[in-house]
Each structure stands twice: as C-alpha cells, then as structure tokens.
Amino acid sequence: MKNVVIALSAIILLVANASAQSAKFAEAMGKTLKEYGEAKTDEALIAVEAKFERIAEAEKTQWLPYYYAAMIKATMSMKGIGGDKDKVADEANELITKAEATEKGNSEVLVVKSMIQTAKMIIDPMSRYMKNGAEAARLLEEAKKADPTNPRPYYLQAANLKNTPEQYGGGCGAAKPLAEKALALYASFKAKSEIDPSWGKESAEAIVAACK
To answer: Does residue 129 belong to any structural domain of this protein?
Structure first.
C-alpha cells in the first residue's frame, strides 16, 4: 500500500510540474506575441525574434516558438533587416526545420517554408524564380492539402500574385479571387489556442480592397 501511495504521489507531482511548465510556456509565448504585434521598428522586430529563439531553446519539443522565429526571420530577409538577406533567410530555414522535426506535414509550417523560399527568390527574381519561386508555390499547394481550412496559404498566394506583373500571370485579376477565398476561410477559422497562428486576415482584406 505504501508503494502505491508513493507511486501516486510521484505521478501527481509530475503532472503538477508539467502543468506549471505548460502555463509558463503559454505565458512567455503570449507576452512575446503581444510584443510582436506592437513591434514598429527594425530593432523591436529583431528583439522579438531573439525572444522567440530563447523560448524555443528552453522548450525544444514545442514547435510554435521556432515557427514564429522563422516567420520573423523570413520577413526580416524580405525587408533587408538584420544583415545579408540570404544569410537571414538561411537562418529562418534552420529554425523552421526544427519546428518541422516535431510537426511534419503541418500546414502552418509549410506556409512559413514557402515564405522563406519567397524571401530567397525576391533577392534576385530573374535568376531565382524558376527554383525558389516554383518551390514557394509548391509548398503553398502542399499547405492547402495538409489543412484545407487554413486561410494562410490562400492569402500568401494572393499576396505573391498581387506583387507579380500581369504579363507573368499576376496582378489583381489573379490575386483577388484567392484573397476572397482566404477571407471566406478566415470567417470560420478558429486557432487551436491563443498562441497558435491566426494572422493574415487584415492583409487579405487589404488585397481585396486594393483590387476593387
């Protein structure tokens, strides 16, 4: 009987510790996501990305901090923040690879992988479109298949086409229907938690508004 009580006490302690760690992780992520939403300068964006990396290194089995760090790095590469654009994009790829290690086939992870390929492509569109541009498009199609309810692949596809000249198949005519599809999915989309991905709706609305 004594051994049973000891075993039960150990299990209860483990559950309590796990709950405390989970709460601490959620709190850290929530705070950093808030800072991300409020980041208005290059320096603030760099600082937030670094915080996500620190959370990721402390919680190596959690994919979300790696995901957000990779997404920010991809954005930094596109905007020329943080140094050499190729190097920053490669750093983003290293981070999303770590996220993918625990979330193989995750639609959200595939979306960020596509963003990274787009970041690589826009550094030199003429020479990289066939490789990186094609891979970015392929990953978005894969993301759609992985989760048909996810609006972000459609939003990103719309954004990419909006910024592509009409003579190459882009422009509002190609982008608007995809942005509208994204908005239809955003209307019913519910993130799994407060720290799971939910971004993109306002940007999709902006594409539709610009393409009237």
So the answer is: yes
